[in-house]
Design brief:
The protein is α+β, with helices and mostly antiparallel strands. The protein contains 5 helices and 26 strands. The protein has 3 domains: 35-138; 141-214, Immunoglobulin-like, CATH 2.60.40; 247-275 and 301-359, no CATH class. The strands form 10 sheets. A 4-stranded mixed sheet has the order 7-6-3-14, with no helix packed on it. Strands 18-16-23-22 form a 4-stranded mixed sheet, with no helix packed on it. Strand 6 (62-67) and strand 7 (70-72) form a beta hairpin.
């Protein structure tokens, strides 16, 4: 029949062009079906950070079919590959884990199934290669921070604590706060904190704290007040502004008494001298007339001056009666004391200048005896 393969072609929509081959034997035509190979390939690895919950890596595989000896990850139309469903439950082949570590999950071609559209008539061979997937969970970063503190010189240190950050749920990390850098003067001092860097699900970083000491404020004590003598002002004699308690002056009383005594002595002396003068006149009637008249005139002048000494005394008595109230409080001086002092001085001057000088003159005039 001289037939050749090139004379034949697959035009049926039920077969893919590569799903059938033609063999020509002279006189005979044999059509054979080729199976379609689909491969599920795994071997993928996913790395995630710990987050305190279960993590699943279930998409670590891929599907391709062999197209002329090459991997074609786009399946022909009408063909799909899915995880097998058994009793209404779909297979789960993902790698899963919660804590830090490596989790590997194997699978096989039996975990999958191929679904063909009704119009697709082809035999499919399903295979699995590198049939596993891997989930790696790494530690989460955590921090331990002591922070900053302050105090004033002389005060006790505050209680040092640390703040933990980056942990999940009720997770904890271990640490130790050490003794701070020594010193009590103003400045900054380190507060160390230590612990393991790798603690299970965490990689821990430690941050020391700082204590700042400030200088104490110097408060200058005020100087004690200087004691000053208390000045007590002599109360002034109040003017007539209302009922006040009366006073009298001891000095004024003494001055009045002195004036009265001097006046009394002057009066007694005056009358005594007058009597003596009359007796002398009776005893010596033969004296020279000129001498008698002169002496009588001088004596009369002295006697008249003595009466002037009575004026300060009388004035002192009257002034004392009018200005002093002996029922009141006694004071030593008052505003009338200067006036009473003037009375005493005036009375004394009168008494001095009117004193009797006759005896002295008689002694001087007596003749000396002659032999």
């Amino acid at each position: 029949m001289n037939l050749a393969v090139s004379q034949f072609a697959n035009v049926s929509p039920n077969f893919y062009k590569d799903s059938v081959t033609f063999q020509v034997t002279d006189g005979w035509l044999e059509i054979k079906e080729n199976a379609l190979t689909i491969v599920v390939v795994g071997g993928a690895t996913d790395e995630r950070v710990y987050n305190g919950t279960e993590q699943v890596f279930d998409d670590g595989y891929a599907v391709y079919w062999v197209d002329n000896g090459k991997a074609n990850y786009t399946l022909p139309a009408g063909i799909t590959v899915e995880l097998k469903t058994v009793n209404g439950v779909q297979n789960q082949i993902g790698a899963k884990g919660t804590n830090v570590g490596t989790y590997k999950q194997n699978f096989s071609a039996a975990d999958f199934e191929v679904k063909l559209a009704d119009s697709v008539k082809v035999k499919v061979n399903l295979e699995a290669k590198q049939a596993w997937m891997t989930l790696i969970i790494t530690p989460a970063p955590a921090t331990v921070t002591v922070g900053t503190y302050s105090k004033v010189e002389g005060e006790d240190d505050p209680t040092f604590t640390a703040t933990v950050g980056g942990t999940f749920g009720g997770d904890t990390v271990g640490y130790t706060i050490g003794a701070r850098e020594a010193g009590e003067t103003a400045g900054s001092y380190n507060i160390p904190v230590t612990g393991a860097a790798n603690q299970g699900n965490y990689t821990v970083t430690f941050y020391p704290g700082t204590l700042t000491i400030t200088a104490a404020e110097v408060i200058e004590e005020p100087e004690p007040p200087q004691a000053s003598p208390e000045v007590i002002d002599e109360p002034e004699t109040p003017m007539a502004k209302g009922p006040t308690r009366p006073t009298w002056s001891l000095f004024d009383l003494i001055c009045m008494i002195v004036c009265a005594i001097v006046a009394a002595i002057t009066g007694v002396t005056y009358f005594k001298k007058k009597d003596d003068a009359e007796e002398d006149e009776n005893a010596e009637p033969v004296k020279a007339k000129a001498e008698g008249e002169e002496e009588e005139e001088d004596e009369n002048k002295r006697h008249k001056s003595k009466f002037l000494g009575l004026i300060p005394a009388v004035a002192a008595i009257i002034t004392f009666i009018l200005t002093q109230d002996l029922s009141g409080l006694m004071v030593f001086f008052d505003k009338w004391s200067i006036l009473f002092a003037v009375y005493v001085i005036a009375d004394g001057l009168v008494a001095y200048f009117t004193r009797n000088k006759k005896p002295e003159e008689e002694e001087e005039e007596q003749p000396t005896a002659t032999v």
